[in-house]
Amino acid sequence: MEAVLIIGKNVTLKEYDLKDAYVVGIDQGAILALEEGIALDAAIGDFDSIEKEEEKRLSKQKNVFFLNREKDDTDTAAALKILPKEVRKITILGGIQGNRIDHFLANLLLMEQDERIGMVDDDTMIFIKNESFQVSKGKYHYLSLFALEEVVDLTLNGVAYPLTNYTLFPKDPLCISNEWKTDLADITFQSGKLLVILSKEDRRNNFK
């Protein structure tokens, strides 16, 4: 089973297939989902910034968890605790862009703790890999890799900037903004853990 956690921010929800997923609206993401006519299996958050009408509408939904504003967990961390045990994949929709980079970084830390988690919005996909893999270009332009642990014998094929048997250390930015040379990139390594970021082309091209 896949769980989809809707946070909002730069997400066109109608473009994502949620039919067979366990869908959780997180705080403002729950309101966004209801506005788009998306059925929620659960909603969770402190909902401290929603309007009275939105709160009334939300209270009619099943499995709504109103959290105390003063809490130790983020809303997303709390959402992970209410997921069914059958969940094998977790996709966070949104939360990559916006003015709260602290929440984005908190979600990255959750990903490192639980490798079932990935993040997606209309421009970016983020996930973690601890073994060799292939990744197709699809709608993306850039492929960036960051070491969360020392990555040994990293080899990249099918990309504009190939690499052979390289040791990628945390804090090493060498593997940022690679591009596909073929439709399928092949990433192999002996050990370690990679943070993988797929990004669309920045048409503004004003910051590198």
Question: Describe it for me?
Answer:
- Its EC number is 2.7.6.2.
- It is an enzyme of class 2 (transferase).
- This is Thiamine diphosphokinase.
- Keywords: ATP-binding, Kinase, Nucleotide-binding, Transferase.
- One of its GO terms (molecular function) is ATP binding.
- The chain is an alpha/beta fold and 208 residues long.
- It folds into 2 domains: 2-122, Rossmann fold (3-Layer(aba) Sandwich), CATH 3.40.50.10240; 128-199, Thiamin pyrophosphokinase, thiamin-binding domain (Jelly Rolls, Sandwich).
- 17% of the residues lie in helices and 37% in strands.
- The protein is built from 4 helices and 13 strands.
- The chain has helices spanning 28-35, 52-59, 75-80, 101-113; strands at residues 2-8, 22-26, 42-45, 64-66, 89-94, 117-120, 124-129, 133-136, 142-157, 163-168, 178-179, 184-188, 191-199.
- Strands 1, 2, 3, 4, 5, 6, 7, 8, 9, 10, 11, 12 and 13 form a 13-stranded mixed beta sheet that branches.
- The longest helix is centred in the middle third of the chain and has 13 residues, at 101-113.
- 26% of the residues are buried.
Defining traits:
alpha/beta, Jelly Rolls, 13 strands, 13-stranded mixed sheet, 37% strand, elongated, Rossmann fold, 208 residues
